[in-house]
Amino acid sequence: MAAVRLRIKREAWDALDALRFGTSSKIEFRNGTIILMSDVVVARTKASIARELGCSVSTVDLIRTRYRKEGIPGLLEKKRTGRPSRVTPAYREALHQTIQTSPVSLGFAFTVWSVPRLNAYLHKQTRIKFSDGQLTRLLHAEGFSLQRPKHTMKGKRDEAAYVKAAVRLERLKKRPSRTMPRSS
């Protein structure tokens, strides 16, 4: 089958450029670029376009077909199908408020939020439950980073007994014998 090339008029070329540089969508930019690279004047093969843009040849075919049938509106990103997210604006607000509040001020004995503790608290507040992995992804999407807390005994141990034990330990440590001759 012979390659079908597009012949793009000057007005259409300008409209495609306006689409490419007037959008923040990577998909719309890629779609416009596919059509411009498919022009007879540019004379690129589907395989070379796909290779350069990092997509498949079937994607190049699909975009060309949509452009022929619908024009520039066919290049715009479509709303993705699938189940709607259970994350509501109220949940996002509760997440932001909770993360920025110390657990101690909310009556907890711990000082740092862990994902399971945060998940349990938000479930009580909002009645929306996620897996810990999903909550971790949501935290990253909202711009929060997870960090491991540094566990120390400071404030939890008897400091006087700690110092006394450290001194005793120093006295018990092995030292070179004074009676044994040293090797040279």
Briefly summarize what is shown.
With 184 residues, this protein is mainly alpha-helical. It is built from eight helices and no strands.
Written description of the protein model:
This protein is 51% helix and 0% strand. Helix 3 packs across helix 4 (57-70) and helix 5 crosses helix 6 (115-126). It has helices at residues 10-21, 26-37, 46-53, 57-70, 89-99, 115-126, 132-141, 159-172. The protein has eight helices and no strands.
Classify the helix fraction into a percent range: 40-55%
Low-confidence stretches: none
- How many beta-strand segments? 0
Largest pleated sheet: none
CA(first)-CA(last) distance: 89 Å
Order of helices and strands: HHHHHHHH
- Nearest-angstrom radius of gyration? 32 Å
Mean pLDDT: 87
Helices, strands, pairings?
Elements: H1 10-21, H2 26-37, H3 46-53, H4 57-70, H5 89-99, H6 115-126, H7 132-141, H8 159-172
Helix pairs in contact: 1-2, 3-4, 5-6
Identify the notable features of this structure and list them briefly:
mainly alpha; 0% strand; 51% helix
